[in-house]
Amino acid sequence: MKTLIPTIATGLLSLLTFTSCSSVNSAHPLTKSSNTGDLESFDGAWTHGGMVFTVEIPKKAPATLAAATLAYENDKFDIIELRAITAQGQHGQYISVLQPKEKGDNETPDRYMISEYSFEREDTLLLWPMEMEAFAKAVEGGQLKGKVHENKENKLMPKAVTLSASGNEILEYLNKHGTQNHFDYKSPTILKRIPHSQGD
């Protein structure tokens, strides 16, 4: 599952979101509860990259999103579950997806993958991951608390950023500086809604 979990997490956010592992993650979601007013638009089944994700609004936590997909490895299916929170900003709407962990992992700290999102139509959800270089500059310039990691052995992601700033601080930064250059608009993740079959 170690190789499948990052792939699935990026597939839905992530809805949830990325076509490749995000090089930016955050220790905190942008908000503690969703405030965009559009959670019902996420509800249902979505497909991306050959995977199907079912998204629900938990009754016990109506200001969050829950999503799940199946992974097949070692001749058995495993359910991968994700939790997400949406946030309204001055320049866009964002979704913070809690990265799944290995079962029994109580030591790894929580990490969230954040992307900007937009519903193009009722059946199409677009998600744009954070742009690594922009947030690396923000951390190195002291505008946001965090750490820039060098990983020269990884040719796909030679650098990564972990934000330790509070969700509110990150949101205020985006409100001040805008989303331009802070999200990868060239490489959106596109999720398509699976229509309900007749009789459902």
Strands, helices and their partners?
Elements lengths: L3 H9 L11 E3 L17 E5 L2 E6 L8 E9 L2 E13 L4 E6 L13 E10 L2 E6 L2 H9 L5 E5 L8 E5 L3 H11 L11 E5 L7
Parallel strand pairs: 1-10
Antiparallel strand pairs: 2-3, 2-11, 3-4, 4-5, 5-6, 6-7, 7-8, 8-11, 9-10
Keywords: Signal
Organism: Rubritalea halochordaticola
Protein name: Secreted protein
Overview of this structure, please?
The protein has 200 residues and is mostly beta strands. The chain has a domain of 136 residues: Lipocalin (Beta Barrel), CATH 2.40.128. Helix content is 14%, strand content 36%. The chain contains 3 helices and 11 strands; from the N terminus they run αββββββββαββαβ. The strands form 2 sheets. It has an 8-stranded antiparallel barrel. The chain has a 3-stranded mixed beta sheet with strand order 1-10-9, covered by helices on one side. The chain is globular, with a radius of gyration of 16 Å.
The residue ranges in which pLDDT falls below 50 over 5 or more consecutive positions are 1-21
Can you tell me the CATH class of the domain at 4-130 and 185-193?
Answer: Mainly Beta
Computed structural class: mainly beta
What CATH architecture of the domain at 4-130 and 185-193 do you see? Beta Barrel
Helicity, in percent? 10-25%
CA-based gyration radius: 16 Å
Q: How are helices and strands ordered from N to C?
A: HEEEEEEEEHEEHE
Q: Which sheet architecture does the biggest sheet show? A: 8 strands, antiparallel, barrel
Q: What would you call the shape?
A: globular
**Strands across the major sheet, in which order?**
2-3-4-5-6-7-8-11
Would you tell me which CATH topology of the domain at 4-130 and 185-193 applies?
Answer: Lipocalin
